[in-house]
Amino acid sequence: MLLVERVRAQAGLFWMTHLSSDREENLSLVQRDDLNRTYRENTSPSSSQSEHSDDHEGETQHTQPKITTWEAGWNITNAIQGIFVLGLPYAVLQSGYTGLLLLVLSALLCCYTGKILISCLYEEDEVGQLHRIRHTYADIADACWSRLCPRLGGKLVNVTQVVELMMTCILYLVVSSNLMSNSFPFLPLSPVTCSTLTFLTLMPCMLIRDLKVVSRLSFLCSLVHFLITFVVIGYCLRQAPRWVYGGLRLAVDFDGFLVATGVIIFSYTSQIFLPTLEGCMEERGQFGGMMDWTHVLACVLKTVFSMLALLTWGEDTKEVVSDNLPPALRMMVNLCLLAKALLSYPLPFFSAAQLLQTGVLQPDAAQCERSEAPEWNTLVLRASLLLLSFIMALCVPRFSLLMGLTGSVTGAVMTLLLPALFHLQLKWRQMSAGGKLLDVVILGLGCVCSLAGVIRCIRAMIHAFTNT
Hints:
Elements: H1 2-19, H2 23-43, H3 58-63, H4 69-80, H5 88-95, H6 97-119, E1 122-124, E2 130-132, H7 137-144, H8 152-183, H9 191-201, H10 211-238, H11 254-267, H12 274-280, H13 287-313, H14 327-344, H15 346-361, H16 365-370, H17 376-393, H18 399-427, H19 433-466
Antiparallel strand pairs: 1-2
């Protein structure tokens, strides 16, 4: 026991000395933020403050339209109940009963890591009032890694976010192309033609200016998603007399389980959107409740959807479950899925463009807000991103493998690993022993899922490329 206590004391000392955030530095940031807010109140009569957080968001945040809690919830729902739910029954088939456990566990963990990530944006002053002194994922990384690699941490996080967002955009293009070709089998549409038509349909995304428009598109996307889900569930319920019980197995194929883990984690990924969404909310104090109901709803629908699909088709469940439907119903569902995929694309595309624009081009925010249309360099950037996602979509051989690789490389890192690591560094002094242990466990899970999934998915993708 004495040895354990000594080891724990030494580990705590090392963490506090080299990795934990400096409490005095955070307090000085809060005090500096108070001075800035006081200055704005004296110079801008129309400024207003929230009880839970301040409005120190810079020029762009002051001029951007605010979104309601429901609008933020629709954006999160769009992110975690996206088109990739179609691959969940196949992923659960590959992973057996553990896949169902993963669906529930991933929802709990992703909801928790989303909350602790947002908590890292805030610091307490001397009287215990919270102030939002950081505004982006990159700001959190800079604060945590300021001693090891000043300013480099934020850039690495930005690069990782852009990669994940672009991979998401590519996946939407891939699935849109597949859905278009499957919806019109009587037309001689090649995959390249379908991808081109999808690309042309998405070109208006270059003109989107704020999250208000994206929220409306996410709302429509969520309505289409619920319609599709209930149609598939209704068909599966009608096939109840023919259900195949025992389709899931206790023995798990290890390679399939690793790919399925990446797919399931990726289906709950929304952390990269959270700092922006929370910063634009009118009532930031309702963020935690919004995360709870969106993730509970997603978990219930995904679990029911996957179980009913497996009971209906068993071992014949395909990578995209809509391909199992009868031809007439499949065409209708595929058309709805196509609309959903196209409506889902603007959220990751807009976020990726914003990250690159603020991190690379750094335009004059006030000038951008005064202009009636995006500046030419913004249009060039967005056109380049759209064209890049189109070119990459033409090179993807298998949908499920790319989704699993994305979930393993960036999803596990951004969703599990980094939020737990940053929370430990910034909130170490305020956390209980149980909270620290939970974050350490999540940190370990993120490392294992990321490393194992990457190795397996790369091997599978190499095999898929050699066979095409």
